[in-house]
């Protein structure tokens, strides 16, 4: 069964929906299909005049080079519940070589991107939503949460860099890292989403936004602009800095202080 559904609801708007029951876990097969779908969208956009710097040439196309991508879920409850954590641990350099390339591709996509968050977005799912240029969320069931701390997982380098970029307020960043389940009104207030709408209007309004604003990316520089702005996130991902887990931290602590020592003198 495919993990991704790719459609074109408007001549200048493409839609990618995650369709992997029960909760759109971001397993390697899904990420691979997502990468292929992003390539397919960009091919069609460029074939329709997108990315051509010459406005006279773009005038010859019906959409004049406009382009937007709506990124959403085909499931009723979850946008994405994040990674298969245990499975990801079994793959060497999972983040640097499997997840992060797709994350970076979405973050710097040359089309305008709109996340239509029509369900819960947790951990890696929240990260993918934050990679989009705009975010519209349902007024129904739709928490956003980075819950890694609840199951003892550190953040990979790419997640840390993206969150620091997207959530500059120290208190909001702290609360996010402590697994706060952000409600829709809270997300709107702190600027992590642009609009809260009724469940049955999420995708519709995302498509309308993409159709309205997509002409801005026609000359082809939008993706390049984002590459420059978000370069530190890519560099953090490609640093291959080892990310320690709780057992590593415990071992390092006892190696430093010595297990043979008695209770600390307070």
From TrEMBL:
CDD domains: crotonase-like. GO terms for biological process: fatty acid beta-oxidation. One of its GO terms (molecular function) is delta(3)-delta(2)-enoyl-CoA isomerase activity. InterPro entries: ClpP/crotonase-like_dom_sf (IPR029045), Enoyl-CoA_hyd/isom_CS (IPR018376), Enoyl-CoA_hydra/iso (IPR001753). Belongs to the enoyl-CoA hydratase/isomerase family. This is Enoyl-CoA hydratase/isomerase. It comes from Cryptococcus deneoformans (strain JEC21 / ATCC MYA-565).
């Amino acid at each position: 069964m495919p993990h991704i559904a790719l459609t074109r609801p408007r001549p200048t708007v493409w839609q990618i929906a995650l369709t992997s029951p029960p909760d759109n876990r971001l397993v390697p097969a899904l990420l691979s299909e997502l990468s292929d779908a992003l390539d397919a969208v960009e091919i069609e956009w460029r074939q329709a005049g997108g990315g051509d710097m010459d406005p006279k040439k773009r005038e010859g196309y019906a959409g004049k080079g406009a382009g937007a991508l709506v990124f959403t879920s085909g499931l009723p409850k979850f946008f994405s519940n994040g990674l298969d954590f245990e499975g990801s641990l079994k793959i060497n350099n999972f983040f640097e070589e499997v997840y992060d390339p797709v994350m970076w591709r979405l973050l710097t996509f040359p089309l305008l991107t709109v996340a239509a968050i029509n369900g819960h977005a947790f951990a890696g799912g929240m990260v993918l939503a934050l990679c989009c240029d705009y975010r519209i969320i349902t007024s129904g069931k739709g928490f956003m949460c980075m819950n890694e701390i609840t199951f003892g997982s550190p953040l990979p380098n790419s997640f840390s860099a993206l969150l620091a970029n997207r959530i500059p307020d120290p208190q909001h960043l702290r609360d996010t890292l402590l697994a706060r389940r952000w409600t829709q009104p809270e997300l709107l207030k702190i600027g992590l989403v642009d609009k809260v709408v009724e469940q049955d209007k999420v995708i519709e309004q995302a498509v309308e936004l993409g159709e309205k604003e997509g002409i801005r990316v026609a000359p082809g520089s939008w993706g390049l602009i984002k590459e420059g702005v978000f370069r530190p996130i890519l560099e953090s991902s490609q640093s291959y800095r080892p990310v320690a887990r709780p057992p590593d931290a415990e071992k390092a602590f006892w190696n430093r202080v010595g297990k043979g020592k008695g209770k600390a003198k307070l």
